[in-house]
Each structure stands twice: as structure tokens, then as C-alpha cells.
């Protein structure tokens, strides 16, 4: 019998309990032992629910129980969750989480504690919800030099953009729908201002190149300023507007990571990924491009990844999964050096050699961001967005 606890019984935590209820017998068969939910730690009153018998309010009960193998941290944020994660790892528990804020900002420290205590700290659910992408990145693609990771990393903003473009509904209404479906963060600013996608591209970057990239060090632009004129021009010219996280390693070893709305060519598979779905494309020097697609948010999809990690942690009790990243990466900024294609819209005379999308909009490049910005100023462009072709 293996025992686990859930800390934080919100969307993800309750999803984990539900996956265990649905699939407990199959999970036990695969593990070779039953998996039991021993505690739920939450400030909410769970009396009168099927979980009343396992509800606790004191973390030290988990910390001091030698029979508890795994702790799921689905509290969110980086305050209480950080304290409880540190203490659970120090107490010799494996910890599994969906908390991208915590992994992106404190992952290096927590993985070091896990290494010292010979336990696992696993976080597949922190990027792409139910999509298995982290394990392929650090395991199946380990024989590659990774050149680029790019993707739609936030289900809420992809849902909002899809509803605005295809449903013709305004931003506020689309956001309310996303919140009602349980996709959005408690504070929707984390979604619509690109912070959530920023945390996820940092985690992908940490794992791809083994060096820490902190969310506070990358450029992050959300979808709140997207103009419906650009949405219409893009659609008419074979492009879609998508919020992308991108991370690249240049030939000289320097790295970049950023989040920005992009024009994505319809010939790129990412362009057609709609609603709450996420898609992450990884380019390796042996494999070429691989793409991972699925539900990037929601209770059961996210719980699917959490439960997979619980099982993996238990299967790697004796020899933990070697996972971690080291010193800070040397970053270049999108705004200055990175050569990309750029979309410009305004009352402009198309510069020579550009792709003309409409009377008012062009694509130039590849040019560094600083040059694109200077050009946008010179021609009086109202919009400047990177392009993925
Ligand atoms: N708010 C996040 C999203 C949840 O919409 O993608 C999953 O991380």
C-alpha cells in the first residue's frame, strides 16, 4: 500500500481525488500496490463530503507521518506552498506539483533539497496541463541538442482568443466563460498578461538547457492590447494571432525566452490549435520538430499528469529521477538582438522587400527586435508583433 496526501483541494486537488476514484483499480494494477489517499489538507470545511474522513488542517500531521509516501502540492502561489514543499521534502516525502509559479521561481532550490534527501520532486502538470511534455523533453529527447521550444502555453488566453475570433464575442465575456469553465487562474491577470505562460516557458527552458531562467528576467507581453483590426488582417492573410512562449538557444550558446502575441502562419500546426488546447513544439538537432498537443488546463487533464507523477515517484523510490538545473542562463532580450520576422500595421508606405498583408500591414525580416522597433517608429506603425512562419 502506498499513501499520498493532497495539499490544496481546489480544481487540481479535487481532480486528483476524482482520477483516483475513477481509475484506482487500474492504477493499483500498474503500481503493483493500492494507492490510498490518506490526507487532504485544506482550510475549507470538507465535512459532509466523501472526503470528511481524510480532511486535516494541520500540515505537521503530514510532515510527521512516516507512512506517508507522496505529497501533492496543489495550493498554488509561492508562499505557503514553498514552506510546505520544503518541509515535506526535508521530511523525506516525494512531492508532486502542478504549481508553475513555485517551480519556475524556486525549482532550483527545491530540486536540490530533493537530491539531498534522495526523494523525487516532479512537476509534469506545471506545463501544458495534461500534455506529457516535460518528461519527453528531459528523457526521450535527451540525445538531442535542443534548439527551440515554442508553444501555446496558456489555455485561458487561447480560449479567449478563439472565442473572440470565431465567436465574435468581446474580451471580457470570453474571459468570464473561461473562468466559469475553471481554466483561468484565481487572478486572471496571470493569464491575460502572459505571466502564467512566462512561468511555463521558463520551466521548459530550465529543463531544455539545464540553466535557470527566472520569470522576472524575461520579456512578457499578454493579450490585453490585441486590436481586433490585427485579428482581422491576420485572418485575411493566412495568419492567426496566438500568445506564444518561445525559448531558443543560439549557436553562440546564449539563450532567450519570452512571451508575446505572435502572428502564426496557418501553415504552422500551432496556428490551428484552438480553445483551451495547448501545443508545444520542440526542435532538436537529431529529431527535427516534434509537437505535443492536448488540454492545457482543467481539473481532470491536469490531474492526469499529477497522478502519472505520483506513480513515477513511487516507481523511483529507490533510485530517484535525476532532475535539476544549475546557474543562471546568459540571456539575450527579444527587444534588442534576436532576428525575427515582424508584423507592422499603420498608415505606412511598405518598406522594400516586405510581405504586404493589406494596404496597412506588412511583414518584415528577419531583423533584430531593436531594428524592427526603430522601423515601426519611423513609419508610424500602430502595431508591432513577432511572426512565426
Ligand atoms: N490558467 C492556466 C491556463 C491553467 O489557462 O493555462 C493551467 O496552467
What does this 3D model show about the protein?
- This protein has 389 residues and is an alpha/beta fold.
- It is built from 12 helices and 18 strands.
- The strands form 3 sheets. Strands 7, 9, 10, 11, 12, 13, 15, 16, 17 and 18 form a 10-stranded mixed β-sheet that branches. A 6-stranded parallel β-sheet has the order 3-2-1-4-5-6, with helices on both faces.
- The longest helix has 21 residues, at 11-31.
- The protein is globular and about 70 Å long.
- The protein starts with a strand and ends with a strand.
- The structure holds L-homoserine.
- L-homoserine binds at residues 129, 154-156, 183-185, 191, 196, 296-297.
Question: What keyword list fits this structure?
Answer:
389 residues, alpha/beta, 10-stranded mixed sheet, 36% helix, binds L-homoserine
Broad shape:
globular
Helix content: 25-40%
| Distance linking N and C termini | 51 Å
Query: Could you tell me the mean pLDDT?
Result: 94
What hetero molecules are in the model? L-homoserine
Strand content: 25-35%
Radius of gyration: 22 Å
SSE layout and pairings?
Elements: E1 2-7, H1 11-31, E2 35-41, E3 55-56, H2 59-63, E4 70-73, H3 80-90, E5 94-97, H4 100-117, E6 121-122, H5 134-140, E7 146-152, H6 155-167, H7 171-180, H8 189-192, H9 195-209, E8 211-212, E9 219-220, H10 228-236, E10 239-249, E11 255-265, E12 277-284, E13 288-295, H11 299-315, E14 326-328, E15 339-346, E16 355-358, E17 361-368, H12 369-379, E18 381-388
Parallel strand pairs: 1-2, 1-4, 2-3, 4-5, 5-6, 8-14, 9-11, 11-18
Antiparallel strand pairs: 7-10, 7-12, 10-11, 12-13, 15-17, 15-18, 16-17
Helix pairs in contact: 1-11, 3-4, 4-9, 6-7
The chain binds L-homoserine.
Residues 129, 154-156, 183-185, 191, 196, 296-297 line the site of L-homoserine (HSE).
